[in-house]
Amino acid sequence: MSGAWRIYGAEMSPYSVKVRAYFRYKGLPHEWIVRTGERMAEFSSLAKLPLIPLVVDPDGVPAQDSTPIIEAVEARHPEPSIHPADPVAAFASALLEEYGDEWGNKWMFHLRWAREVDQLAGATRIARTLEPDSGEERHRAITTQVRERMVGRVGFVGSNAGTAPIIEASFVDALRLLERHLAARPYLFGGRPAFADFGLWAQVRTAFTDPTGYGIIANRTPGVLGWIARMEWPRAEGPFEAWASLEPTLGPLLRDEVAARFLPWSLANAAAIAAGREEFTVRLADGPWTQAPQKYHARSLARLRERRLASPALAEVDAMLAKWACLEPLAGEAPPAA
User: Fold this and answer.
1) Scanning 116, 199, 294, 316, which has the fewest C-beta atoms within 10 Å of its C-beta?
2) What global pTM score does this model have?
3) Does a structural domain hold residue 253?
């Protein structure tokens, strides 16, 4: 495809399908390249890190990390925009995009590797992706290796015996709130996808492809199910809504999820990194949370704070954040880790 972008990714990677959905919405010519074992040398020659997605622009310049990729492409191709003109809605969208990337990933990763049925399904699919043409014996061997490795990595996102009930309660609560909100609109911010849709959808959609996540979503939240399908090939069906019409149902998601769980975790994580701690504990709305810090998220939290300060309507944004209990964590200093 002459002049096309290349996206190296995988169907099971939420960040990969997030970027692919964005390119589909923007109408940018692109090639979707599954990172199989045969493609690994090609991938490694372009990637700085062994992480997907990897996006290569038409000039051959590679980039990794889904949010900076989308922000860079959006600057080059601003239409159709993924940012509402209403600055309050625009900041809420950015906040929910970050929530999806960093907190929603805990849902996806935990649900995929916490139970035997999901472990087996996930590891088998990864084995098939890595070596699609290998025989059954080879696939079984790869499946076993993948399962053992990934089950041992759940702690990286904070999944453990103590946090598992919080993660699963958060998933169910977020779906319930999204179901109510999406009853009146096709996308989170109205008639077209916003920044938040890509980040949050990618985690929900990927959880839906595993047995436990599928059972929860398919049986409880038909509106979310429709959103999952719609976001595979998103399109503009109408304008963005102003924050005033979104707030009655989107505000509770900010209060009950972002303010009660995500932001306290974010601040404690950042404080632990600053203090050089190997572990931190923070009390969330529904109990204590203990894990090793996630280094990348401290940087993305800093960018979120910078985005708030750069808003052209800071007073209005802050009023919205204060109403839904999100202002203090984004405006103040991080507390010391417990």
Assistant:
1) 116
2) 0.95
3) yes
